[in-house]
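Below is how a single chain appears once it has passed through the pipeline. First comes the sequence as given, then the structure the pipeline wrote out for it. We keep one example in the README because the format questions we get most often are answered faster by looking than by reading.
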Amino acid sequence: MAMAARSERATAVRSRVHSGGVAEARVMVKRTAAVAHVTPRPQLVVVPRRRRAARLIAVGCTIVFGLMLGAAAFQTQLARRQLTLDTMDRNIRAAHTQYDVLRRERAELRSPGRLVAEATQLGMVPATQTEFVAMDPDVVATVQRKGVGDDQTASVSVDAEFQQYAKVKAQAGGAP
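Resulting structure:
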């Protein structure tokens, strides 16, 4: 087969002599003959890498795992806070109950019937008549000053205090 291809090429090639003579003969190719035994090369195509899909799946799974972990943590926080709220509600109900009990006890202690019973046990008797006692304003002011416990107010006389009170009232326009 190689011989047949060579003979075909030989007919296509001829020798040409240029200015020098036979010694410098050079073979020139008129045309190229087709080679029958060479098969054409297959066309190469770039195949996309499959690792990209694997990476996307791994990233997606990681994100879903993180979201699920966050949801579980959120549910845990909600449950813990709900327990705290329930405890506070129980404490508030207990405080309301105690408040109601204390109000009832106070009402019983202040009831007129009980006060009469306690007073008679102590030897007190009901009054037969009522009388109002008029008190001097100097005595009232002195008692009030003594209750304060401050020695500086003792140096100011009662008249001076009333004068200061009158000045303040005059500046305030008589409003309390």
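The chain has a mean pLDDT of 80.

See the next section for the split statistics.
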